[in-house]
Amino acid sequence: MAHDDQTGMIGNITLALNFDNSYARDLPQACVPWRAQAAPRPRELFWNEALASVLDTDLAAWGRAQREAVFGGVEVPDGAQPVAQAYAGHQFGGFSPQLGDGRALLLGELIDRHGQRVDLAFKGSGRTPFARGGDGKAAVGPMLREVLIGEALHALGIPSTRALAVVATGEWVPRDHALPGAILTRVGHSHLRIGTFQYFAARGDQAGLQRLLDYAVQRHRPAAACFEQAQGDAALALLMAVLQRQARLVAQWMGVGFIHGVMNTDNMSLSGQSIDFGPCAFMEVHDPSTVYSSIDQHGRYAYGRQPAIAQWNLARLAEALLPVMQGSEEQRLEAASGVIDTFDAVFDEAMAAVWRLKLGWPDQAEGPAVRRWAQDWQALLQAHRVDHTQGWRGLVDAAQGRPQGLLQHFGEGAGADAAQRWLEGWQAHATSAGWSIDINTLKAANPAVIPRNHQVELALQAASDDGDLQAFHALLDAVRRPCSEDPALLPYTQAAPPEVAAAHRTFCGT
Ligand code: AMP
Ligand code: MG
Fold first, then answer.
1. Sheet (strand 83-85) strand order
2. Distance between CA atoms of 59 and 277, rounded to whole angstroms?
3. pLDDT tens digits, 428-480
């Protein structure tokens, strides 16, 4: 299609969207104006039509040529003001005062059809001033992984950044061996991270920290109750709000066996959305010590450690916010630690809300009973090496008088007997409390389909090695319907054979 540089048009469509770039405008100290490196031969691999139509009707009307031009980094759409964002962060516990978008760019903030502000951001769009030793590039496989994980989490009702587009660049990216390159465009409520606050705190930049605080409060407004509890201290209110969002998020991850894999403070968003999917994976056999990431050698980010790590990260946010809190140094410290100490209670309540649904019990079911029954079930899954997803989903059939399929996962003898006893007790508890187990709640809270690691690998490998996107699209379709009972999805509900599952490792893909 013809492109005219003078008019900013491709064909007869103007590349303009409803941008309003508040971050670039309000926080110039926290970013660098930058441009994506144009893909030499952009070719669209994925386009999120459903997301585009929620965002912007003009965007949804763009043809492939427009999309490849913009999301391949060739054209900057009118109104966009791309910047590389600065941030710091604790990576695996060690602090780096300057990380930043080394291979990412905030293209601009779009005001969507509902008047909501969202970030459109690239990943893999070339080196920036924050690139350090990196090449600024991303490979097709890891970018398509971001699509699958984001869409899966979203379909599961878990807050997540989502992929809008993946465009192959037509370049080779040198890794262990050369891989085809790609640019991901993702959409999120913002890209403010704990590490964004750490960036200013590490520089002792009090004025910058205050501007960031004002900005963050404006953009991710804490609930009125937080302001009240914080007696008007905006920093404290923000800390409370972020703590609540992240506690809820991690509780939801735990419910579906999701392991983020790199819960560094630069990968934890203030909005409470899941962000930055590197070596993440859904757990198969239920085991709290599960780690899939090849770079997490000490199990810092294992499944069962995620709540504790979230709290640790929030303590780092509290430290960064201390200079802009109110009161004497002693009062600030006390107030901030007071908030961090609430994490366990907030998390326990959020977790109980997740388990309550997974048990099919109603709102009246009390936290302690919910926790005890859920924990006992998980202990059985762990003791008998049962798949997390199948172990929970099996409750749907069991509640309808068909426990056999589920019991098979527990082997012969003692395992099946113990599971049978738990099932009877779970149902008896509901009956004696005067409720019934709600089958629709069970079905909605216990997905049948998750992006299984072996299937993700197969799909990404075919896409990366052979340019064959069939398996990717089939898997994407499946993970977008996690609770469906469509028999066609059966292959996506099966666990990997044990020898395949045991060998699974994910790589950061940087
Ligand atoms: P991540 O592990 O993707 O969250 O990235 C951690 C930090 O490393 C961020 O500052 C990234 O921008 C940077 N980074 C990762 N990969 C690359 C790359 N290929 N080129 C430049 N910077 C990178
Ligand atoms: Mg990151």
1. 31-33, 83-85, 104-111, 117-123, 178-188, 162-174, 43-47
2. 25
3. 999 999 999 999 999 999 999 999 999 999 999 999 999 999 999 999 999 99
Concerning whether 266 is annotated as a catalytic residue, the answer is: yes
Collect contacts of 371-377 with beta carbons under 8 A, ≥24 apart.
Answer: 373/422, 373/425, 373/426, 373/429, 376/422, 377/422, 377/426
Q: What share of the chain is helix, strand, coil (3-state, %, to 5)?
A: 50, 15, 35
pLDDT digits (tens, 9 = 90+) for 323-332: 999 999 999 9
> Ligand 1 pocket: which of 90, 96, 99 to mutate (most atoms <8 Å of CB)?
99
Ligand 1 binding pocket, CB closer than 6 Å: 99-104, 130-131, 134-137, 262, 266-267, 276, 278, 510
Name which of 140, 243, 187 is nearest 17 in CA terms: 187
What is the position in ligand 1's atom list of the atom closest to the CA of 137? 19
Pocket test of ligand 1: the residue of 92, 123, 301, 510 to mutate, having most ligand atoms within 8 Å of its CB, is 510
CA of 402 to the centre of ligand 2 (A): 44
Active-site entry in 56, 119, 266, 296:
266
Tens digit of each residue's pLDDT (9 = 90 or more) over 175-216: 999 999 999 999 999 999 999 999 999 999 999 999 999 999
Q: Are strands 162-174 and 43-47 parallel, antiparallel or unpaired?
A: antiparallel
Report how far ligand 1's centroid is from the alpha carbon of 135 (Å). Answer: 9
The alpha carbon of 10 and the centre of ligand 2 are apart by a number of angstroms equal to 33
- pTM value is 0.96
